[in-house]
Recover the amino acids of this structure.
């Protein structure tokens, strides 16, 4: 018996103090030199604030998009060839539909887990774009786009545009009545651009609408080209984040020259991987219980058919709203037409908004004269002008988004459609204009309130035997003790507390 | 010339305010007024001839029924006319007049529709969908209600009104077991979805009119609505055969009214608007809340 | 070569295992451990349930509930472990200075300007020719890709398939007879033979509405276009091309469902509300000796939304 133990001990000692893992590291480092850089990577500190999780929602919903998307590409057929539907959904039996539509309906009814994958993919897209917007708002209102992170802001904004575009292309692939209408509108918007519009529309769509090239081309763009660009830009986004390190809020022990938080391994990896599962879980539950894009009910796209109460997906809503409320001004002279009622809301307006967003870091640098490096974040209430400007632009976009449901609003609230439209036209100007001063004064008020937005500690009131009331701050939760400790560098070596004679380390749980 | 800039600013501000105020006011006055002017002047010329066979006439040559194996149209029994007249005087004459000519007792001609020659299906549709007697005669569009008169009473009123000037179409009975739901889906998408939406939820139209939801309508009323074109709804007579109408009815009473919704909650059949709210509030909102748990507060 | 110091100085300090920074944050680590264990067990059960649901081809919601539930439990467990049981920290690391020294920057600029630029300076002519060739490489790579994408528009947008004498047919190909429509009826029509073609459906689509003759306002030059109140308009909205299928027969409006433009049916489909700038083009009709509705000619203007070449 003791011989076996002795042999085991000898073998273990031969491996070295870190066992097999140590051996692997040694071998890899001899060949690749990964030890120092790897250790630096594992020690990387990530600040823990909850608002930094918003970007992770975007990242992980993109992962879900990729995974579910691969599943869908195995069954979806990107062809406009006409086939006769012979699947299990009776109201489509015998109808002549495109293969793209038929394969999408078969995905929903004939492929196991197909409907779940389709729905998860679509919900993940809505959440992807939504979380990018929320994350972008967080970055904007806390000033994280300032030097040295202007490049990351540009990358992120490009990601937003690509995400919106890919989402639009993606939900147009099944070639159903609702999304086909959106494609017709996109075609007309392209057509409306002065000088080059008709050429652009004919080139992108392969001829007059609808043609047969539209679906196969958009499939390649949606599945290959744009996701590759997004992947590359996400990589750049994360690389910049790791290289420049994350920003952090003001707080005890935090300066412009350090980062306080949890190390990459094991804490941050555990939390972020757990968050990946949470995002996948929420998307899975949505895909299970909330029906989205029921293309079988919409029927195949037919250029002569149309449904009412048709809106694009929410992230295109601001464009649809702008198109609805813009007056019928068309410029027509010298033998040419510029359909301003299309070009201004659908081309010029998003152009202005996105260019303003791209230019914002430089604009703010110019307006504030601040060229310093910033690694500490602003609290939004301490930058009232920026906060108010952002709030006003957001309010404008939200009003436009609401404007895309004028008919649904009129129906729900039993109002005249005509008055709802006029109401939206007025609100588009009025709401942003009053949002700015309201946000500005709110921010200023918050600055004056001490501890605004901070977690309040309870007061424990005790009564002494003689009847005195004594109020003290409640003891902090054990979790909060985290903040009472001073931050230390990540330890290089952890020394065991005690060791028994046969080399077994014991440590407190 | 010296321009007084402050006066210019004042007048510009005044013009802006004027436009802001005048716009909604004009909208309220303008198209709504135009609507009420011709709201009830439905022309009944050439209301549609039977495009089916098996016409059965009575001894005096009046058509009692016609139809085929898709839809049978039947005239309400003449025996009901007396009951119908009594019910009409009780429930309808106040507005439509004692002679059913749209001239009420106070003599304001043209305020209410002339019912002479509209045909039994029209009368039956308005009464059995509960729209008539009108709950609010001044509203732009009468809404569906629980019917005040039952089926027999409605047929009785239809019989009496029809007796004044016998007309078509008659009261339909669709035979849904002969209908093809797939053809119905295609026809619905081309002819009906533009107003009623592809999921049959209904939506607002111009100037406070609306296309109603199709979730609560029985099969024969769908035929009546298609053939008679009530209110602002266009009427589909010769361009849709009885077989095609029967197919549409089958689609409405099955898929529209009992959608399978295999994907989960239907979210009201409102399409991307509802989906956006759920995605943002439930999806991003819930995940942001979970992120609040994961991260720190400071 | 000078020894470059590492970018991030790796701390070399050791701490004892009992250091407070390494302790779990939870007050009751054992209880938390049990809760996490329950979550992991629930996750495993859910995933097994998912596999079973897949094998028996269960409904989509069961597949999604088990999959989503499993992922959620797993995520909660893992996050709780990281947040409550792992070393609570806080830890700090110094930000290294990102930028290089001015000498290093100058060295980079020198490499580009003097070494590289110098080459071009010495051979300016070659440099110019190289530049020209590169530009043409770009053009040669891009041009076929872009130009082959589609045909030139030319006159395509200016014509439809309607001709003099075209029968108006519905989507099944049946010719429309005047008796098919009562006053207040609407039908979607195409030129005969084109009802199943792409172009036919997308471009030729037309609505014929029968209004009573008294209601119709005859526009100058269009006196013969709407015989007996049968009037035809292009179904393509002049705003963005959606089919204008929504007809309100008492208001006499054609409403476009997309952005709610409203066209007056009795008066040349003039837009009186909404963003559409031009009336719907009217198709001149006539009724032939057998009572069928036919076109007199093509539309007198391009149908659909506006574009630059539209005069």
């Amino acid at each position: 018996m003791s011989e076996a133990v002795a042999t085991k001990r000898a073998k273990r000692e031969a491996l070295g103090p870190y066992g097999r893992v140590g051996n692997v590291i040694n071998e890899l480092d001899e060949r690749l030199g990964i030890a120092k850089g790897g250790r630096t990577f594992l020690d990387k500190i990530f600040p823990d604030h909850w608002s930094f999780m918003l970007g992770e929602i975007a990242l992980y919903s993109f992962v879900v998009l990729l995974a579910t998307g691969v599943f869908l590409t195995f069954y979806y057929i990107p062809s406009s060839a006409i086939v006769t539907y012979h699947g299990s959904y009776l109201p489509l039996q015998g109808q002549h539909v495109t293969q793209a539509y038929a394969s999408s309906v078969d995905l929903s009814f004939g492929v196991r887990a197909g409907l779940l994958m389709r729905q998860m993919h679509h919900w993940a897209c809505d959440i992807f774009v939504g979380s990018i917007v929320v994350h972008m708002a967080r970055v904007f209102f806390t000033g994280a786009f300032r030097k040295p992170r202007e490049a990351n802001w540009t990358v992120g904004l490009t990601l937003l545009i690509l995400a919106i575009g890919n989402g639009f292309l993606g939900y147009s692939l099944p070639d159903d009545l609702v999304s086909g209408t959106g494609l017709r509108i996109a075609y007309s918007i392209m057509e409306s651009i002065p000088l080059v519009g008709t050429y652009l529309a004919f080139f992108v769509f392969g001829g007059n609408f609808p043609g047969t090239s539209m679906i196969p081309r958009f499939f390649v763009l949606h599945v290959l080209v744009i996701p590759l660009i997004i992947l590359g830009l996400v990589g750049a986004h994360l690389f910049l984040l790791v290289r420049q390190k994350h920003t952090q809020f003001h707080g005890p022990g935090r300066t412009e020259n350090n980062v306080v938080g949890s190390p990459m391994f094991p804490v941050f990896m555990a939390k972020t991987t757990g968050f990946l599962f949470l995002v996948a879980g929420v998307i899975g539950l949505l895909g299970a219980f909330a029906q989205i894009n029921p293309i079988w009910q919409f029927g195949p796209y037919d250029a002569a058919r149309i449904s009412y109460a048709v809106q694009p997906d929410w992230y295109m809503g601001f464009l649809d709203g702008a198109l609805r409320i813009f007056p019928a001004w068309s410029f027509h002279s010298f033998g040419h037409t510029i359909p301003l009622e299309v070009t201004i809301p659908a081309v010029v307006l998003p152009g202005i908004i996105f260019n303003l967003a791209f230019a914002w870091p430089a604009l703010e640098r110019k307006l504030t004269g601040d060229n310093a490096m910033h690694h500490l974040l602003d609290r939004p209430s301490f930058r009232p002008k920026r906060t108010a400007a952002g709030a006003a632009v957001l309010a404008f976009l939200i009003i436009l988004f609401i404007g895309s449901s004028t008919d649904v609003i009129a129906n729900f609230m039993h109002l005249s459609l005509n008055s709802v439209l006029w109401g939206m036209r007025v609100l588009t100007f009025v709401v942003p204009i009053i949002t700015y001063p309201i946000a500005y004064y709110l921010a200023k008020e918050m600055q004056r309130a001490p501890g605004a937005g901070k977690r309040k500690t309870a007061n424990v009131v005790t009564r002494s035997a003689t009847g005195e009331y004594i109020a003290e701050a409640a003891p902090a939760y054990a979790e909060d003790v985290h903040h009472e400790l001073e931050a230390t560098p990540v330890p290089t070596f952890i020394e065991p507390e005690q060791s028994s004679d046969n080399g077994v380390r014991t440590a407190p749980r | 010339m010296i321009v007084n800039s402050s006066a210019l600013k004042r007048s510009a501000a005044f013009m802006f305010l004027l436009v802001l105020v005048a716009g909604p006011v004009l909208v309220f006055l303008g198209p709504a007024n135009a609507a009420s002017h011709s709201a009830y002047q439905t022309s009944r010329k050439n209301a549609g001839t039977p495009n089916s066979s098996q016409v059965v006439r009575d001894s005096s040559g009046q058509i009692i029924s016609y139809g085929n194996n898709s839809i049978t149209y039947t005239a309400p029994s003449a025996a009901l006319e007396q009951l119908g007249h009594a019910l009409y005087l009780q429930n309808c004459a106040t507005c439509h007049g004692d002679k059913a000519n749209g001239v009420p007792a106070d003599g304001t001609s043209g305020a209410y529709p002339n019912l002479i020659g509209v045909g039994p299906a029209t009368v039956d549709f308005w009464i059995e969908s509960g729209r008539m007697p009108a709950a609010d005669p001044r509203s732009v569009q009468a809404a569906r209600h629980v019917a005040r008169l039952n089926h027999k009473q409605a047929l009785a009123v239809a019989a009496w009104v029809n007796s004044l000037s016998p007309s078509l179409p008659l009261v339909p009975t669709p035979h849904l077991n002969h209908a093809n739901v797939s053809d119905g889906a295609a026809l619905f998408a081309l002819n009906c979805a533009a107003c009623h939406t592809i999921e049959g939820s209904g939506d607002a139209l111009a100037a406070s009119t609306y296309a109603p939801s199709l979730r609560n309508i029985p099969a024969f009323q769908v035929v009546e609505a298609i053939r008679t074109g009530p209110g602002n709804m266009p009427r589909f007579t010769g361009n849709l055969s009885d077989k095609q109408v029967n197919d549409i009815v089958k689609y409405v009473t099955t898929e529209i009214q009992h959608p399978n919704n295999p994907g989960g909650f239907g979210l009201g059949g409102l399409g991307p608007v509802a989906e956006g709210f759920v995605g943002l509030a439930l999806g991003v909102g819930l995940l942001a809340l979970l992120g609040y748990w994961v991260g720190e507060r400071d | 070569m000078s020894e470059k110091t590492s970018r991030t100085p790796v701390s070399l300090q050791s701490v004892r295992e009992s250091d407070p920074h390494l302790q779990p944050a939870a007050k009751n680590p054992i209880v938390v451990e049990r809760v996490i264990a329950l979550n992991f067990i629930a996750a495993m059960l859910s995933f097994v349930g998912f596999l079973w649901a897949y094998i028996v081809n269960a409904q989509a919601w069961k597949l999604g509930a088990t999959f989503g539930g499993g992922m959620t439990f797993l995520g909660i467990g893992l996050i709780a472990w990281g947040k409550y049981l792992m070393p609570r920290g806080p830890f700090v690391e110094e930000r290294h200075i990102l930028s290089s020294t001015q000498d290093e920057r100058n060295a980079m600029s020198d490499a580009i300007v003097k070494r590289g630029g110098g080459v071009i300076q010495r051979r300016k002519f070659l440099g110019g020719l190289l530049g020209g060739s590169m530009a043409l490489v770009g053009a040669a790579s891009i041009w076929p890709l872009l130009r082959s994408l589609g045909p030139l528009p030319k006159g395509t947008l200016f014509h439809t398939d309607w001709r003099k004498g075209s029968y108006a047919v519905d989507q099944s190909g049946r010719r429309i007879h005047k008796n098919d429509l009562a006053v207040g009826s609407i039908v979607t029509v195409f030129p005969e033979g084109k009802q199943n073609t792409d172009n036919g459906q997308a471009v030729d689509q037309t609505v014929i509405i029968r209004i009573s003759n008294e209601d119709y306002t005859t526009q100058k030059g269009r006196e013969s276009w709407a015989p007996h109140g049968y009037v035809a308009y292009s179904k393509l909205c002049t705003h963005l091309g959606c089919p204008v299928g929504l007809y309100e027969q008492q208001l006499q409006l054609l409403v476009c469902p997309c952005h709610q433009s409203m066209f007056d049916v009795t008066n040349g489909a003039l837009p009186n509300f909404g963003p559409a700038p031009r009336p719907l083009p009217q198709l001149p009709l006539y009724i032939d000796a057998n009572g069928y509705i036919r076109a007199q000619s093509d539309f007198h203007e391009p149908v659909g939304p506006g574009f630059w070449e539209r005069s």
Q: What stands out?
A: The first strand of chain A starts at residue 45 and ends at 46.
